[in-house]
Amino acid sequence: EDQVTQSPEALRLQEGESSSLNCSYTVSGLRGLFWYRQDPGKGPEFLFTLYSAGEEKEKERLKATLTKKESFLHITAPKPEDSATYLCAVQAGSGNTPLVFGKGTRLSVIA
Amino acid sequence: GAVVSQHPSRVICKSGTSVKIECRSLDFQATTMFWYRQFPKQSLMLMATSNEGSKATYEQGVEKDKFLINHASLTLSTLTVTSAHPEDSSFYICSARDLRGRLGNTEAFFGQGTRLTVV
To answer: Over 90: is that where the pLDDT of B97 sits?
Structure first.
């Protein structure tokens, strides 16, 4: 069974304090690994897709990396507006399979 | 990214009534749409997958007669919660994927979600 585990469940950072969120996965044939940001009462907002080990993508203060077992979302010098829940999801196998989500990491950035 | 519009964002209904939630892809053709349910501080739970012009495929434990899904066009899918009960109160989210066009075959974009409260 495909599984996604995110850690930590919650993270509290001071503004400017860089850190990383972890997403560990077990999947039968990774098709893609996805990072989303979700604000309270809103739908997930797409951030990145990673397809193969060694791949990296960046967007502003966020950088996502991928290995064969896990992905990291690095947040550099975070700001209070980066506070949100960050969701990791995988798509497995071939064809049009749905995403399997982790439980998310709730990030709070304090000014 | 692509835009998926979900409506309404909030709805309150009485027990026993039905509620329809719409999900529209605004700038792409959604060959596949997914419906999720999310409880507070929990992750997204897949309810069903629908392909345009086909019957929806429901996940185990999801009652297809209670959660009616229609995906009649490439830009619109609807979820109807029939005979709603308080335990159906939740946050419902749709997502859409374009298998044929410029978005590639793995990107999935989400609507804003619908907060359903059954009283």
So the answer is: no
Report whether pLDDT(B98) > 90.
no
Provide the β-strand partners of residue A44: none
**Contact A85/A106 with Cβ under 8 angstroms?**
yes
Predicted pLDDT at B104: 53
Asked if B106 has any chain A CB less than 8 Å from its own CB, the reply is yes
| Neighbour-count burial for B43-60, b at 16+ CB within 10 Å, e otherwise | bbbbbbbbbbeeebebee
| Residue B13 Cα to chain centre, angstroms | 18
CB atoms B110 and A46 under 8 Å? yes
Q: Which run of H or of E encompasses B117?
A: strand B114-118
Place of tokens 């298998």: B99
Q: Do B93 and A44 touch (CB under 8 A)?
A: yes
pLDDT in tens, A52-76: 999 999 999 999 999 999 999 999 9
